[in-house]
Amino acid sequence: MVFKLNRIFFLGAVALLLVNAAMAQTFPGYNNSNYAGIYGVFSNPASAAGYRYKWDVNIIGADVNAGNTYVSFPKSVLFNQPDSFQRNRDFFLDEGANRKQSGWEMAEIVLPSVLYAIDEKQSVSFVWRMRSSSSGGNITTPIANFFGINFPNPDYTGTNLTIPYAGVASHVWHELGLSYARVIRETYSGRWKAGITLKLLSGVAAGYAATRNASFRLNSSQDATIYSGTLYYGYNTEMDNWESPAQRNVKLFQNNGIGADIGVIYEYRPDNGGFGEYESSDADEYKFRIGASLTDIGRIKYTKAPNNTNLDLTKDNANPKDIQYRNKESLKQYTTRLNNYFTSIPSSDSTFNMTLPAALNFMGDYNIDSRFFVSAQAVIALNTGDMDITKTYALTQFNITPRYETPLFGAYMPFTINHNGQ
């Protein structure tokens, strides 16, 4: 029996750090490796079928990705953080862009997980992950400048501004998953694999806020007229009783939901020697493979905090400073203050469903000489847009990863571009 622990590839880790701001995909580059094991299951469950080892055990792993289109930092700040940040020295704003501004975050900790190959055609996996996802924006650059530069930005005094739609959402949850993968068809020159992962979801924290049809005018630094607008917001009731340290709030089997991933892979194997399904699948290697998968199908139902309500933002003589978050103010205190400042809109909704960042994934992988490979992957977000505000969404992107790998060593260099051109 061959026993394999997931390897740590320093070159790949360095590459991920260098391009981190452009990514929002789980373990990019490595997830298409022939040795990915558990980490391949996350992006396509079918990858575990016909796995070359009997066992694949993960002790712990982590992946963090974040980025935005509006704020950038010089690399020197990472190694020499200033006591206070100054604009145009320690950070820079994209003040003149014509595009809309947005930001995103995805992070996960892979906890003890295991893959077991039943035979040469099928495998089962148990996966355990702690995940977070945040996304927001869809605001024009003038609106970003108004709120982001010396709020309220005096350059916009006397100017009418509008926000047709802007939203932000954040989500933290557990996943306990059981995955099954199998070779479903084998021919003389190729084989088809399919897999599915069913996940028990446990919600830890979730919140959202969205503004629709807002229009306003800044009369002075302490006076504004809000002509119209509605704020929709909500967060789960557990956040009103948030404990310190934060890990005390991480509990299994609360706010439960069901999720799923499903995928297929085709491998072209021209050197099969004419034996097809009668030859051991480990005796030959693919020349190329292609795959497709749907990931993060599902949602989690939460009970809203008691003071959550929608707000009519219409108001004369509004002081912009009155709507700012105050230092050391709790979330409950802040939202209560907003409720008293604006007009509440009665609602009977006491729950909300936070949708997972569902994505359609396509992959291709070409075997150059059994050590050098090049893979490509496209991630297409499925739940963007402004129809559903209780969601986070994946980042649509494309990456190409040349790699070198052997049973003892692997190096990966992903090159990624997302739909923002980054």
Describe the structure concisely.
This protein is mainly beta and 422 residues long. It has helices at 10-18, 38-43, 76-79, 141-148, 331-341, and strands spanning 3-5, 55-58, 61-68, 71-72, 92-93, 101-110, 113-117, 122-139, 160-186, 190-220, 223-235, 256-268, 288-303, 310-312, 315-318, 343-345, 351-355, 359-367, 372-381, 397-405, 410-412, 415-418.
Topology record:
Layout: E1 3-5, H1 10-18, H2 38-43, E2 55-58, E3 61-68, E4 71-72, H3 76-79, E5 92-93, E6 101-110, E7 113-117, E8 122-139, H4 141-148, E9 160-186, E10 190-220, E11 223-235, E12 256-268, E13 288-303, E14 310-312, E15 315-318, H5 331-341, E16 343-345, E17 351-355, E18 359-367, E19 372-381, E20 397-405, E21 410-412, E22 415-418
Parallel strand pairs: 1-2
Antiparallel strand pairs: 2-7, 3-6, 4-5, 6-8, 7-8, 8-9, 9-10, 10-11, 10-12, 11-14, 11-15, 12-13, 13-17, 13-18, 14-16, 18-19, 19-20, 20-21, 20-22
Q: What does this protein structure show overall?
A:
- There is one protein chain.
- The protein is mainly beta and 422 residues long.
- It has helices at residues 10-18, 38-43, 76-79, 141-148, 331-341, and strands spanning 3-5, 55-58, 61-68, 71-72, 92-93, 101-110, 113-117, 122-139, 160-186, 190-220, 223-235, 256-268, 288-303, 310-312, 315-318, 343-345, 351-355, 359-367, 372-381, 397-405, 410-412, 415-418.
- The chain has a 20-stranded mixed sheet that branches. A two-stranded antiparallel ribbon has the order 4-5.
- The longest helix has 11 residues, at 331-341.
- The radius of gyration is 24 Å and the shape is elongated.
